[in-house]
What we know:
Blueprint: H1 2-15, E1 31-32, E2 39-40, E3 48-52, H2 53-59, E4 74-77, E5 86-89, E6 105-109, E7 112-114, E8 127-134, E9 148-154, E10 164-172, E11 176-187, E12 191-202, E13 207-208, E14 220-234, E15 237-248, H3 269-272, H4 284-288, E16 304-305, E17 312-313, E18 315-327, E19 331-344, E20 346-349, E21 359-378, E22 384-405, E23 413-435, E24 440-463, E25 472-482, E26 487-498, E27 501-512, E28 533-546, E29 551-563, E30 566-572, E31 579-585, E32 587-600, E33 608-624, E34 629-630, E35 636-637, E36 650-661, E37 666-677, H5 689-695, E38 700-711, E39 716-723, E40 731-734, E41 744-746, E42 751-759
Amino acid sequence: MQYKKRLAAAITAAVAINIPISHAAVLEEVIVSAQKRNESLQDVPIAVAAFSQAELKKSGANAVQDLIELVPGIELFDDRGAGQPTWVIRGVGLADFNSNNTPASAIYYDDFYLSSNVMGGIGLFDIERVEILKGPQGGLYGKNTSGGAILIHSQAPSLQDGNNGYLKASYGKWNSSTLEGAVGSSFGDKVAIRLAATTHQGGGWQDSLATAKDDEWGDSDFSAYRAQLLFQANENVDVLFKFDGGYDRSETTLLYNQPVYDAVGNFCQAALNGKADEDSCFTFGNVIDPSLPLPSEQDKDGTKVLSPPTNELDNSWQAYTMHINWDMDFATFTAITGYIDYENKQEFDFDAEAPNFLNERDGDAEIKSWSQEFRLTSNNSEKLDWLVGFSYAEDEISDSRRGDLTDFPYFQTSSARGFDQENQSWSTYVQLKYQFNDHWAANGSLRYTDEEKEIFNVYHLNEDPFDIFPDGFINNVKTNYELEHNYSGHLGLDWTPNEDVLVYGKITQGFKSGGFFGGFAFTEDEVQPYSEERVLSYEVGFKSNWLDNTLRVNGDVFFYDYQEVQGFSVVESDITNTQLSKLANMGDAKHLGYELDIIWLPQAVEGLKLAGSFTWLDAKFTEADKTPVFDPAGNTQTLDGLDRTFAPDFSYTLQANYRWMLNDAYEAEAELGYNWRDDIVSKDSTISPLDHAAKGQDSYGLLNARLSIADVEGRWELALAGKNLANEEYAARVTTDDVVTYPLVPGQPRSWSIEALYNW
């Protein structure tokens, strides 16, 4: 019942303001393009979390994954501490960091699909809005949307705004700094441009006990830029060219080593009882070398860790897109061409031990992806709205890595692995909406997708001076994957009893493509393709405005028949005599949940805005693969009946925002936000107390605040922001090295920043 106490306290704090009112405000209309046409959020029969440009600037989000803590029911999988973030929406998502895998929640950047999870860290700057679509989106967005879709819309050039732009700077704890800006201009009535750039530097907050100095590890070194040219050929045709580029050479989070052993290398009693205890247990490094720092010397907030300072990125990218819009009167023709060349390099210490039991070095993955989409969207239809489209895409992936186990006493070896992969897909789709009368409408979509993948030149070669293993595990392996279930889409019915209320029901089929394991494979069987997963969703929801448009209440209830779930299970390896994570289809699951979003402008308090979002989720495996999974001690159980990971029972966000006039020229704004999520890897999702001690991820809540002052004309703003003000100690992710350690990615402790914004 802990979350109920926290919820009650947060609500009490949010509504405890009582200030006289002079006039009432109303809620602003939010425009989204979730259905590939601009519409009011309240008219779209989809559960959508949308963030405007102003909200994004105030959030302090430097990357799209930073928004996850503002939306309940969404989790972030990132085994590598900001290296390769993957979204999990309503418990649907594949927890894999390999470059050849695709998220189950697709990210569309200005309508261009980002085909790999490693691309998810592209910066968030000069953005018009972000839309997070919850639930499968197989009709309009196609493959890899079994969880949902994230739509990022950058600020486009404008022919009407003349010369305009902004400059935003911040400085914060640990010498972190951000500089962001954009400038736009029009040249006559035909041409407009917009240039934007950002850089994030500093912020190192961790110290490694493996070195004598204070490492100040975790510094960002990220820069990105964007150039856009809009050309209006005539009153009906416009063309938008966009070029993106950037690099990320940041140091990523050092892992916190969880102690689960006793002094002789057996599992300690505390871990067997379900808790990794720093005072009575040891790491595997302590067992081998008692002179190493003890786990109790670490700080639970991650500021001091045993892990050596090695984790870092060296990513770079270039992307080109072109949009053509042609208003043909009866319909609008749109053509979208996109290309990206993304290079991902990362060094990562899996085990968080001073002797590097497993360190990945010399990793280099290059992804080249291009796509072409055409669509025709109806205009000004009284009864029937329609949309038809076609898309084609190709990906080329070349990936190589080296795994170093030379410090591990049993293996004392290193190995190299790599592969090449090519993907091709095409699809055609249609969406229809028919308005029967003023109150009832039916809608539906259907998409056919054809996809083929080939992985080849797959190798895992071993350098083993002690002949413990064969010289090569696998070499020159080649195999194929072809999509088996080609159709996706939805059927829905909408009821609008009045202009302020929408009630909708729909059945949706979405899927995430199959593929190949991109990690260190020891047998050819591990490289064989896994098949696509499918989500059949049943959802009923409502959207409503009340009290003269000062109260907005949206909600939904959903049930998922989740088939052929993709994921990792732990199995015993006959080759390494250790437990390894195996990627496969794990069986079926059922997800049941409800969501509620409330925004209220109390008429009794001018300038006050209260908001809350809540998600409850019950996600369990059913009819799972009968292959047993293992806990660290070798105990086995099937997945049947276990809760899903990354699917907390309850999560919520609360926000109180208050604006008031200081005088005729200046206004102030104060904002307080709190977000909470239950256990992300709960006891009911692990097979034993030891399993939970090693891999469990507990609940946590984060308290953030922001205070600002600005001129009433919106020309400038100064702000002071704080994050994790309660200094919550929490795990952003718990992982394993597949050898002998069970570290976690610590969440960042309390921080602050000073921000300045100037608009023109």
